[in-house]
Design brief:
The structure is a single chain. This protein is mainly alpha-helical. It has one domain (4-333): ABC transporter involved in vitamin B12 uptake, BtuC (Orthogonal Bundle), CATH 1.10.3470. It is 78% helix and 0% strand. It is built from 15 helices and no strands. Helix 3 (49-84) packs antiparallel against helix 12, helix 4 crosses helix 6 and helix 10 packs across helix 14. The longest helix has 36 residues, at 49-84. The chain is globular, with a radius of gyration of 20 Å. It starts with a helix and ends with a helix.
Length: 334
Amino acid sequence: MIPPNKRYLYLISAMTLLLGVCFVVSLLVGSVMLTPQRLLSGLFHEVDMMVQLVFWEIRLPRALLGVCVGFSLGLTGAVMQGYMRNPLADPGVLGITSGAAMGAVITFYTGLANAFELALPLGGVLGGLLILCMVVMMAGRSASVQTLILAGIAFSTLAGAIISLVLNFSPNPHAVLDIVFWLLGSLKDRSINNLYLALPLMVPGWAMLLYCSRALRALTLGEDTAASMGFSMKQVRYLVIVGSALAVGPAIAVTGSIGFVGLVVPHLIRPLVAGDPGRLLWLSGLAGAVLLSVSDIVVRLISLGQELKLGVITSLIGAPFFFFLLFKMRREVV
């Protein structure tokens, strides 16, 4: 029998290795297929300018964004499910995803997205933070988990209505098409500048969420018991809310709406850690990065005349899994 601590280290090592393999494959596949030999030769001998251009301007930013965004979604999903003690919670439960989408759509509508490169991710970040502030203000300082969920649903619906309103009144059909394609989610045509904008916000968010691991483990015994063990529930709520906003808002702002990763990944990993919500966090983040990287590789390998959107692939994976969870919960109730 492998001790739990050693088993956990093995799992972390295996998941990190798998992510490394996915990252390397992501650098090689695409419309221009590269072999490892050609990639290394082009990078270090400076004889193949096309390889350098493809690597530095297209493949590397895309692969890095896939890892960072997947890590954010997987980690946030695990934290949300642990904090709310709800297996169906995901990063969109507080309205952050819808708010980021709303902010980005408004930049499309106003033309700012075409004016300068960073307008789109900045608009998404500001939209996510705006909806989050409204959720917190509406719920109140001493709000329960249920109140936060209701406030998140309410403002998520409001953000969705604003997105529909923008689509309805957009005078430019090309802008509408851009908005719709962006809402489907993709890593295509993202530059290193997008990573420079998103990563400084995501890293503090990751740190806040990972810091909650011990508190989430205590919460499995109930809020009163966790408080008696010395954990401040107000502090935990603050870390979860702000950390989720910082981790998910910039990610969605850069890539568009990518659903189901935060819902599916924690459920796949939870049996490996015997349901321990504290140990689930790192593994869910790494698994989220693996899932998004693999999905992006599949998107590039499928040839349908134009590239399939990443959000479509994750939805095709997530929707059947969501139904499986619902049927499983129904069986447990019966």
